[in-house]
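Researcher: Quick test of sequence recovery. Tokens follow.
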């Protein structure tokens, strides 16, 4: 059964062996075909490969994917495994309606796992959610997607948060299938939950750095009351960019014997941020507290500061890119698993661009579109 609680559309969740298959068609073949047995005219894997290839060329909708497939030449359709017809073995591309039906029905949790990167051995893993605003209807809330991304900017997986609940209920399910031994997981204050800390340290043998805000009033008060003025372990970082100057002062204190009510907490950090707007001259100040199970030997103030900032990688290198390059918030895909699966295809395209050293995703998509029936297929390793 699919690990995504909102759907039972996969025979079983993809195993580590399935995710480790080198060739993309072999990985996708482990997914269950959601179509009725008598309604299968086009190969299931071929439809998914067409969708992956079209999104690599910048397709933003089911209609755009269908147009790409309709214009594909015979040699490209052959590489994609499209079905043949007549004695002349003419390749036929699936219609936009067929592509829509498949992507609306295929298991979103399984597809995200199979198309994502492996986090084993990564230094950090950031977890954060994003709402696909365009998927909102008059009777149904917009799809909210919880994703995980490595510090190098590769998306690992994502899950759709069920309606009438929040990200907290999906945190463990999101990370459960993966080997996180030695990985430091970062998340915003919403996920500063005792159960999450126990899950990461005791079950996954991972580490955590979690921000503490007013949603944990007692814990927040305890951290504010620590003797920060006497702390000598500190780090100063200064940078200028995006129209502002910023100075960050990170103080770190070992709290192992201070009775903090949080599992496995070893160090606490206070990060004081001073920002100056270069245009208006306005100065702002923000104080952030965080907890980690990393010891002073494992994490210096410099590393703690780096870990705290690594949480922004998922906002800057995934959510922002999907919004600006793929216009995700403007997308009107709303039905079935369409919003989550299209978001997965966008993340898959971003992963592949970054894997070959591309940093400007928009420019990379344009380069793909100049030879749209060869370059994406070469990138995906389709013979």
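Model:
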């Amino acid at each position: 059964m699919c690990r995504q609680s909102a759907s039972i559309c996969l025979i079983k969740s993809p195993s580590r062996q399935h995710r480790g298959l080198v060739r993309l068609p072999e990985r996708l073949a482990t997914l269950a075909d959601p179509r009725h047995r008598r309604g299968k005219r086009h190969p299931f894997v071929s439809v998914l490969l067409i969708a992956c290839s079209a999104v690599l060329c910048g397709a933003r909708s089911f209609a755009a994917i269908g147009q790409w497939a309709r214009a594909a030449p015979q040699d490209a359709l052959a590489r994609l495994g499209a079905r043949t017809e007549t004695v002349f073995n003419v390749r036929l591309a699936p219609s936009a309606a067929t592509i829509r039906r498949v992507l609306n029905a295929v298991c979103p949790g399984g597809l995200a796992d199979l198309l994502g990167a492996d986090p084993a051995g990564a230094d950090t893993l950031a977890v954060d959610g994003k709402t696909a605003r365009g998927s909102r209807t008059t009777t149904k809330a917009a799809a909210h997607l919880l994703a995980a991304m490595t510090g190098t900017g590769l998306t690992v997986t994502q899950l759709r948060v069920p309606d009438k609940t929040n990200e907290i209920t999906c945190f463990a399910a999101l990370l459960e299938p993966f080997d996180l031994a030695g990985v430091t997981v970062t998340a915003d204050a919403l996920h500063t939950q005792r159960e999450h800390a126990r899950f990461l340290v005791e079950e996954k043998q991972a580490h955590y750095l979690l921000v503490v805000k007013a949603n944990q009033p007692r814990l927040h008060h305890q951290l504010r009351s620590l003797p920060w003025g006497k702390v000598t372990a500190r780090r100063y970082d200064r940078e200028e960019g995006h129209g502002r100057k910023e100075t960050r002062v990170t103080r770190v204190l070992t709290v192992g014997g201070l009775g903090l009510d949080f599992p496995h907490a070893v160090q606490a950090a206070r990060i004081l941020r001073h920002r100056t707007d270069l245009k208006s001259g306005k100065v702002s100040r923000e104080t952030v507290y965080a907890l980690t199970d990393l010891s002073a030997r494992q994490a210096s103030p410099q590393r703690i500061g780096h870990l705290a900032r690594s949480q922004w990688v998922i906002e800057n290198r995934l959510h922002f890119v999907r919004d600006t390059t793929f216009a995700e918030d403007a997308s009107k895909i709303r039905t079935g698993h369409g919003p989550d699966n299209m978001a997965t295809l966008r993340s898959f395209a971003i992963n592949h661009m970054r894997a070959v050293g591309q940093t400007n995703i928009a420019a990379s998509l344009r380069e793909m579109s100049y030879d749209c029936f060869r370059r994406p297929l070469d990138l995906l390793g389709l013979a």
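The longest strand covers residues 244-254.
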